[in-house]
Amino acid sequence: MLTLKEKVKQLPESPGIYYMKNLQNHVIYVGKAKKLKQRVSSYFVNSKAHANKTKQMIRLIADFDFQLVDTEFDALVLECETIHALRPPYNRLMNHYEEYGYFQFLDQPPYFKVLDDWSDDGFVIGPFYRKSKMIDFKDTMNSVYHLEGPLRYAKGIVADYQDVEPAQEFLQRLEEIKQTLLGRSTQVLNRIEERVEAASGRKDFETAQRWWGNYLLVERFLRRNRQLLQATNDSVFVGILPEDKKYYCYLYAKGELIGRTVYQRKPTSEQVYRRLVKQVSAKTWQNLQAKKFLDKQDVDLFPIFFNYLQRHGQVLRFSWPEE
Predict the structure, then answer these.
(1) DSSP string, 278-314
(2) Minimal CA–CA distance to 270: which of 308, 322, 316, 312?
(3) CA 307, CA 303: separation in Å to the nearest integer?
(4) Confidence of residue 323 (pLDDT cuts 50, 70, 90)
(5) Rounded to two decimals, what is the model's pTM?
(6) 10 Å Cβ neighbour count for 82?
(7) Which three-class secondary structure state does DSSP give residue 29?
């Protein structure tokens, strides 16, 4: 029987994923690699560079398996799907669904909430990463718009709406937050910036610094979750990846990778779109169209799709295909 190091020597320098197993033959870790042999062999080199958690895992490895794919992107996608299916204990990044949450808007108290799971009550958007940042975002919104406490219905909290009835003005505050989360407005950031400038004008630099921290918090949160808004809309996305004189093309919609094809010559974006759309059954399109929200598991795929393909190829947005 081959030792682990001997088994590593037989690995190809090809893209793929690998499964680390313990003595009970349970998968404890799944990883991806552009070059399998190089990546897997790194676990069996006595290196001080390994984190303590990695060293702990290495001590448990009794065997490994692997699966070859065409590209590093395919390895990333397969790694994501496999982690969701197996939930290995040493895969933390894609294994903690409690890190995600949803925002809920209601027409009665508490009006604006952070939820663990989707609800059909009110207007819900998400999932967002991650819950602790969502709570920080919510707290900042309360500071800006006074959604809770005695100023909830106070007149003139937002100067633009001074001539509006207090209850209606409060709904306008909520609407600004909603439109910001949907990526349709920057009004929330404008409100915070006004507070920074006002505090600076009073030479209250401590308050100005605190509001500037709030500005950065909100801006980073919106930037981090920007792709979510694209993924939940009724749009489809085509990713084109040139590699090894081929063009690997992918179709993405509503949190799912639903099509893949390969061209030997560079295709036009329209060619790719038409070909990929035809691969998908009418039933699949109907199911996706009816999909009201993304599951927490769906969220891990869209940054892989958008970030990798935009960096190494291109991502194109198309309208939902006609029936």
Answers:
(1) HHS-HHHHHHHHT--S--HHHHTHHHIIIIIHHHHSE
(2) 316
(3) 5
(4) low
(5) 0.76
(6) 20
(7) strand
